[in-house]
Amino acid sequence: MPASSAAASAPGPAQRLSIGQVLARLTPEFPDLTPSKLRFLEEQQLVSPARTESGYRKFSPGDVERLRLILSMQRDSYLPLKVIREYLVDLDAGRSPVPPGAASGPRPSMLSQERRYKREELVREAGATMMLLNDAITASVIVPAEVYGDEAVAVLKALVELSRCGIEPRHLRGFRAAAERELGLIESALVPISRRKDTSSRAHAAELAQEIAAQLEVVRGSLIRSALGRLAP
């Protein structure tokens, strides 16, 4: 390609965004996004923004879409950064890897935002009853709130199916205690990092907490599958 054509196709300075502009574009979809988290993702080599002569980061439109993909995979599938990095390496190499954690069927748009449901809407969306929702809240399986997200819908749908097998929310009280014990494990593992008060360390702690939670989920799933094997005749 001639140099003039390459220069014309390359993103110009006007197309590059500062950290503040990137946050303005992405925080409506990812409210927990902070400058320190953006810097942490760069430190982890998941995104590589350009630098000005003064050292300021400048993000291209491609960088913004890459960040949207990374953040969506973290939020929607709770994927550890290692898995996301491997997926991005395959994409960068021109391969067409299956998105990790993707369910079968059409993939939802990365641009869609999570819906919010009032109690009545949540019950209707999940095909549940208000009594089942109240029982789930009493059993601490669902946290009471003014509005609920898609995760609450998924949990309530699961409770509907479990109730058909005779498993009620009150039978699941131990799940909250188990979750609290896992949280204690995660907090213990983060003590060395949480003692450091800089913003980069806080972002690192938040990312590491998600990775530990994902690995605990793998172990828990394996234990359940192993126990199910003992039920086979």
Summarize the structure.
The protein is mostly helical and 233 residues long.
Element-level helix/strand string = HHHEEHHHHHHH
Please tally the helical runs, counting DSSP H or I stretches of 4 or more residues: 10
Q: In CATH terms, what is the architecture of the domain at 14-92? A: Orthogonal Bundle
Uncertain residue segments: 1-11, 103-112
Which structural category fits the helices and strands? mainly alpha
CATH fold name of the domain at 14-92: Multidrug-efflux Transporter Regulator, Chain: A, Domain 2
Helix content: 55-70%
Major beta-sheet overview: 2 strands, antiparallel
Distance separating the two termini: 67 Å
The strands making up the biggest β-sheet line up spatially as 1-2
Count of DSSP E strands? Answer: 2
CATH class category label of the domain at 14-92:
Mainly Alpha
General form: globular
Rg calc = 22 Å
Give the percentage of residues in beta strands.
Answer: under 5%
| Mean pLDDT rating | 81
Structure description:
This protein has helices at residues 3-9, 19-26, 35-43, 61-77, 81-92, 119-126, 130-138, 150-164, 173-194, 199-229, and strands at residues 50-51, 57-58. By secondary structure, the chain is mostly helical. It has a two-stranded antiparallel ribbon. It is globular and about 65 Å long.
